[in-house]
Specification:
mainly alpha
Length: 93
Amino acid sequence: MGIFVFLPLVLPLTAWPIARLAEQRLHPRTATVLLTSVSTVLALCSTVCLALLMVVGTAQLPGNPLPDGWSDPEVRASVPRHEIAGKAAIPAL
């Protein structure tokens, strides 16, 4: 996973330039459908990303309810700075 786990959190920022281009080149109804679809996909990706970060964050808490395999060092090593990202993802989600 590495640093790419943070990519879906940044991708929704690309909706603004897409909206500007769609406004100039497409019919308003087509642009609305396109932007709604893109925004839905980006929101779903961001939610899944936050959920994965939350799993890594809750794996560090004592007495976590997660299966033992989820708190392995391999899982923690897959996300850079898992301590900060995991603890920040819990309230963000």
